[in-house]
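As the next step, I selected for study one protein, both as residues and as discrete backbone shape codes, as given directly below:
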Amino acid sequence: MDYPIRKASLDDRAAIKQLIGESARGLSRADYSDAQIEGAIATVFGVDTNLIIDGTYFVAESAGTLIGCGGWSKRKTLFGGDQCATRDASGLDPKTEPAKIRAFFIHPEHARKGIARAILAACESEAQACGFKSLELMSTLPGIKLYRACGYEGEDHIELAVGDGVTIGLVPMRKELS
């Protein structure tokens, strides 16, 4: 692996924010319009500082630049960065509730090189070690293929408002851990 994966630190927030924008703008064009992408960046896609503080958010680097990020959570919030008003930071019960897979973004120049899979594997392993028996996530349309290939299931599409009359399609997905 030519890209080390490590836990994100609070000092990474600006670089993560930049990576999120580059990823969304570069990898979502086949599924979302410019208005949808910009609306999602403004209202939903963003850094979730709680994940960094909890030590459950990972970044991948190449030549000192962040090229991928993603994490998992012991909190009820399923998606949304610090700017998202509907976040619920209360804790989950690993015996009865699924951990959340959160905020995966890969730089367009590094897409489809196994970075997201490597981060996802680290997240799944940690969540399972913390006693979680299942995982759930809210996939963007571009992410569905990756998550399905990694054993996540889900078909229902939802529409999320991201601005004045603008929505994006998302798919809730779930995976049972063995």
About this structure: Helices lie at 13-27, 34-43, 49-54, 115-129, 144-149. The first helix runs from residue 13 to 27. The chain has a mean pLDDT of 94.
